[in-house]
């Protein structure tokens, strides 16, 4: 919709021309006749009340309106050279000595234009309306016989007995004024929308905001600032900032307002070295803490929290008790931890328990299996990336796991399977406590504790060139070795009882039923035991369980698992391990999931071993 305009014509002739221009060009404009004498300014105010978006007028009427109306654009109808020459030409029929009278914005170098017509022109600008009549009388007394000017000037000249010739405005001048007014009205609309959007943003921000001028006096405030300070905007405007905000004024400064603590930030408005004022933002520390609480809830929903603590560990053996006791001491430290042990002994359970008893217990716990990702994917997962950093990169980029673990713990499981290039970047994160996303050059500080775990001999990997020596020393600060299940005596029975209670609470266990479990060495450790009990819970058809049922179940699975147990910290030769992997795959008819279960390794490890065998 075209903007609504109002053209205040100083006389009927200009009003008639204006109406023609409006109709011909379909402007949304009301044409009203009114000058300084008949309340032109009042008509302009009435137009403003009627939602007019721009006002057009001429001469003194325009000057008065533009002084009074500041809410919307006011546009002047210019007096063109043609309009002035036409009026002078008409006046020349009566006299050669002509006075051109009007406001400075109307007469535009009339003397210069008069030279082309051979006229004696006297310019009489109306600079002060109160003294103008006396000036006009004085000039008439000097021999002026005719006056050319706007409506007010010619009416005054006529009242003094001198003929007046009105300078009219043609269609071109009126059309240009209307077009300019329409453009300004559209621009004013956009500025109003932007201003409204800005006020909505400021008014809905939870931070208190105060702006000052170069004299440090408050010029703007938002509702949050009024709420926190207990002052209205009227009470603050014009006051020195020192009287409003207590304490020192600098970034990240703690201040106290009405017995509440706030974090204050300050930004100076500068242009070409000149200071134009400051913008102060301040936020209650309690609200920041509430946001952190909400963030923790979100992290919980994303699984970045722990499930286990030391209380969840089942067993009374001396080996387990010693490991738990050492882990509890480790929990109190902030140093990096290296957990070693065979696959399936519960290294992540210990890592979660250490986190839960550490000062970081309320922070996130981020677990990543380094063997579960190809090198390129692992790198992007750990460090994150920016948009466009590589093909198929997520729009907007992605935050890395190191960043997610900020103020918490990151658990790097199977760190020995990490490539050398990724190891180098992980080393830098641990040393410098900062992360650089892929495709970016910005440094992001992180406050994390690293717990690493491995089921291989890392020192042997260092000697073989598969693991960086500097990273080994960096993670091997506090070492915790988890004993295998075969060294935990009666813990096997206690764990079996607990697992069966969880999986099949209705099965009655006869006394001594689980004793046969002690005859098996459990190369898959706790994971193997849990899987065995789960299988038993599903397949056992009787209401009670005795030792014979256990032996029968062990007989169907023990042979395979004893022959094809996990590699124990590199004790198998490569040729023998390769042969075993291929034989297990053949027995499983190529089912890699089943083969991984028997071998006690994950799918990514099996995939890498098969790729190596193919070479």
Describe what is shown at a glance.
The protein has 615 residues and is an alpha/beta fold. Helix 22 (525-539) links the parallel strand 23 (508-509) and strand 24 (544-545).
Give structural notes:
With 615 residues, the chain is an alpha/beta fold. The chain has five domains: 5-77 and 172-187, Response regulator (Rossmann fold); 81-167, Rossmann fold (3-Layer(aba) Sandwich); 205-286, Beta-Lactamase (2-Layer Sandwich), CATH 3.30.450; 310-481, 3-Layer(aba) Sandwich (Rossmann fold); 493-614, no CATH class. The strands form seven sheets. Strands 10-9-13-12-11 form a five-stranded antiparallel sheet. The longest helix is centred in the N-terminal third of the chain and has 34 residues, at 171-204. The radius of gyration is 44 Å and the shape is elongated.
Strand order of the largest sheet: 10-9-13-12-11
Structural class: alpha/beta
Q: How many strand units?
A: 24
Main β-sheet: number of strands, strand sense, barrel status? Answer: 5 strands, antiparallel
Query: What's the CATH class label of the largest domain?
Result: Alpha Beta
